[in-house]
Amino acid sequence: MNSQARTNWRSIAAGAIGNMLEWYDFAIYGYFAAQIGRTFFSSEDHVSQLLAAFGIFAVGYLMRPLGGALVGYIGDQFGRPAALTFSITAMAVPTFLVGILPGYDTLGLAAPVILTGLRMLQGLSVGGECTTSIVFLYEHAPPGRRGLCAAIAFCGANAGILLGSATGSLIASILSPDALDHWGWRIPFVLGLVVGGLGYLLRRGFSEPETAARPARSPFADIVRTHRSLLLWLAGISVFGAVSFYLMFVYVVSWLQFADKIAPAHALSINTVCMAMMMPVILGTGWLSDNVGRHRLMIAALMLGLIGAYPLLWLMHHPSLTMVVLGQMGFVAIIGLFSGALGGAMVEAVPPDVRCSATALGYNITYGVAGGLSPLAATWLVNRTADDLSPAYMIMTAAAVSLLAMLLHRSRPGTA
Question: Which are the contacts of 150, defined by CB distance < 8 A and separation ≥ 6?
């Protein structure tokens, strides 16, 4: 392997691995939402505590558009590596502080207030991290492999959530439920400082080729002036991924516990297995998108989500763990098919000089609102309707919105 090839692989690995470390930090909050609710909020009924915990989860996600704007601006003006180094640094310290923050019994109302502030900082970081790493990997890819390399970024995020799920599953299987509630859930957050530090060291040394001139004026002025329809398109196609992913791989851990009465350790184990299986689906779809086109794969996935969400969730609402796994594996196939093609479709549609900013804004507006509010909305909807399968309607609606965006704007640049 020559020197240039080694440099390219090192850069690609740095982007993917850093994204994995970033999402580990952010994801573990969702997996321990029930324990966090009992720690940081006053003793009320279970649903109120879970709603409060997912409410702060949503606040963190609502910071994503601001984070995307900030980190996207850094990426377009000062380079992709500077943006990625900033984003991972802004994640590590708040994650550690969540792990050592005293609870409601010690700090009273100050505990949820401080927790909210820390989650906002984490949301700021994640808002710029995901899309900037996708742009970075896409721009380093050789022709004919750009869809695959963009999919690697999604795999990095997927692997980070998988790492969080596996860590949570291991801790839940070792500790008693009482120990997990009182202090065990804090361990992954404390470890986040080490994980984030490793990511910082990895990213600090890599560089990027000059793929395009820096914008002459603020990239946001250019986006507002000339790329408004593109911004709406990016937001529209991201709705399905935002809603389906966070319902089926974050919220579902709590859903399995209260809807199916599955123990926390088993719920996390099921989620871990399914997350692991989605990685080859994403990579395979990324490779396939370079050969058959990204848009036709995304449309196929959206149609499957529209007709398959309810029967798959019905399958998961079953006393047999095998049936639960089969149902979630169906979501793995659909969401993986969509996500594997999404990264390349987004990046290639945006001019290089505003690529980080426009992609970050469009993607994160949707993920901040639709993704961040999905667990909260699903918790409320199930409690309000007394229908454990009602989250399926949210996924179906999201699929319809993204499908409409795809069909109305099928002719985008670079859809090969």
Answer: 134, 137, 138, 141, 286, 343, 344, 347
Q: Is the CB of residue 334 less than 8 Å from the CB of residue 395? A: no
Of 406, 264, 402, 236, the closest CA to residue 335 belongs to 402
Q: Quickly list H helices, 293-320.
A: 294-316
| Burial class of residue 105, CB neighbours in 10 A (0-12, 13-18, 19+) | exposed
> What's the pTM?
0.78
| Helix/strand/coil for 228 | helix
Q: Write down the pLDDT at residue 246.
A: 86
73 contacts 219 by C-beta, under 8 angstroms: yes
Q: What's the pLDDT at 219? A: 61
What is the largest distance, in Å, between two alpha-carbon atoms of the chain? 62
Q: How many CA atoms lie within 13 A of 363 on its CB side?
A: 30
| Burial class, 255, CB count within 10 angstroms (exposed 0-12 / middle 13-18 / buried 19+) | buried
| Per-residue model confidence (pLDDT) at position 208 | 57
Per-run averaged pLDDT (10 residues), the chain, 416 residues:
56 71 74 80 68 72 76 76 79 87 86 86 78 83 86 83 79 86 89 78 63 54 72 92 89 84 80 87 94 93 96 90 92 95 91 82 83 85 89 96 87 43
For 234-268, give the DSSP string: HHHHTHHHHHHHHIIIIIHHHHHHHHS---HHHHH
Closest CA to 297 of 147, 400, 134: 147
Other CB atoms within 10 Å distance of the CB of residue 225: 9
The one-character DSSP state at 413 is T
Give the separation between CA 14 and CA 87, rounded to whole angstroms.
13
Residues 6+ apart with CB under 8 A from 210: none
Tokens, residue 243? 């809603």
Check residue 222 and give its pLDDT: 65
In angstroms, how far is CA 355 from the centroid of its own chain?
A: 19
pLDDT at 220 (0 to 100)? 62
* Amino acid letter for position 138: Y
Task: Check residue 161 and give its pLDDT.
Answer: 77
- The answer to whether the beta carbons of residues 257 and 177 sit under 8 Å apart is no
Q: Work out the number of other CB atoms within 10 angstroms of the CB of residue 12.
A: 18
Amino acid in the structure at residue 274 = C
Query: Which single residue is written with the structure tokens 């505990």?
Result: 111
If phi > 0 it is left, if psi is from -120 to 50 it is alpha, else beta; for residue 108 that is left
Q: Please report how many Cα atoms fall inside a 13 Å half-sphere around the Cα of residue 410, on the Cβ side.
A: 9
